From TrEMBL:
The chain crosses the membrane at residues 12-35, 47-69, 89-117, 168-199, 220-241, 247-266, 271-290. One of its GO terms (biological process) is CAAX-box protein processing. It catalyses: Hydrolyzes the peptide bond -P2-(S-farnesyl or geranylgeranyl)C-P1'-P2'-P3'-COOH where P1' and P2' are amino acids with aliphatic sidechains and P3' is any C-terminal residue. GO terms for cellular component: endoplasmic reticulum membrane. One of its GO terms (molecular function) is metalloendopeptidase activity. This is intramembrane prenyl-peptidase Rce1. The keyword Membrane applies. The gene is LOC110420496.
Length: 313
């Protein structure tokens, strides 16, 4: 990629990102509005139809970006590198961002641990089973639980389709466009999540009907959702720019979808509050050191990572 040079300008980059955002949302309604297909007979069929639409949108965006991006080479390895799809430094791109993200959820993990211990104590008092037997029964039931989870369409939406397609479109496709359009890296961290949050506005009518058609309640729910997507989008964009690897924001996205909103305060559980504060301090302290570009690239001077440079500035 020609570094901040070529025919790509800021307005073109912004318009291209806007077009991809609109297409990502609009295609979800294409089967009924454009193709005139009958409504799906079940929720599972409805979600599968949306999975296909999201996949088509992602593939179209991946094909669209090289048409306007000033790329030096059309070789497959180089094109994959543009999107941060790389096989090198894979374990670093998984372990370090996952550890960093988990620090924001130390309070949630502490609370889950306390609840798990309390649940075990309750079972022990009821049937007198020792801890080992309780752990053994939990492990033995794990395969059947996983089979049940894997057959759940919401599992595929939350942990496979949504993270993969959203990271491809809103990070892998949009960030190279914005950087090559002349935006500074720290600006992209805050500009890119705007498109990501706008793509979630399509849930407004669904939430509006769910809230008994109360505009105030629906607006509050949507506002909270948009705020969360902006914060997470900024963090995911930061990871993508710092590492140059799509896996980094992808694993963070999956983990956040699994954990939900982090616990910040719990009444009468001071240990959880202490864990929350310790986690947030550790996260802020490690944010830049654990995302150093040289941890994810063989070299930072004329390196292989997609953005053509690896310095934060």
């Amino acid at each position: 990629m020609e570094e901040n040079q070529g025919s790509l300008s800021k307005p073109v980059a912004v318009m291209a990102c806007t077009a991809m955002t609109l297409f990502y949302v609009a295609i979800l309604y294409a089967p009924t509005l454009i193709l005139r297909l009958p409504p799906p007979q079940s929720f599972k069929n409805f979600m599968i139809r949306r999975f296909v639409c999201a996949a088509v949108s992602s593939v179209a965006s991946v094909i669209f970006v090289p048409l306007i991006l000033p790329i030096r080479s059309l070789e497959a390895s180089f094109l994959f590198g543009v999107y941060g799809i790389r096989s090198d430094h894979l374990w670093q791109a998984v372990v370090f961002p996952l550890f960093l993200t988990s620090l924001m959820y130390v309070g949630s993990l502490m609370l889950k641990s306390i609840l798990l211990v309390n649940k075990w104590n309750q079972h022990r008092n009821q049937d007198g089973r020792p801890l080992f037997d309780y752990i053994k029964s939990t492990v033995l039931s794990f395969p059947s639980q996983m089979s049940s989870v894997a057959s759940n369409v919401l599992f595929w939406r939350n942990f496979v389709v949504a993270p993969l397609t959203e990271e491809l479109v809103f990070r892998a496709c949009m960030i190279p466009l914005l950087l090559c359009g002349g935006f500074k890296a720290y600006n992209v961290v805050f500009v890119c999540p705007t498109f990501f949050s706008l793509a979630h506005l399509n849930h407004m009518m669904e939430i509006y009907s769910r809230q008994n058609y109360s505009l105030l309640k629906a607006s509050m729910v949507v506002g909270l959702q948009l705020g969360y997507t902006v914060i997470f989008g900024s963090y995911a964009s930061f990871l993508f720019i710092r590492t140059g690897n799509l896996v980094a924001p992808l694993v963070a996205h999956i983990f956040c979808n699994y954990m939900g909103l982090p616990v910040l305060f719990v009444q009468r559980k001071g240990l959880v509050s202490v864990a929350v504060v310790a986690g947030m301090i550790s996260f802020a302290w490690l944010l830049f050191p654990i995302t150093r570009p040289d941890l994810y690239n063989n070299r930072t001077n004329n390196c292989r990572c997609w953005q053509g440079y690896c310095s934060w500035s």
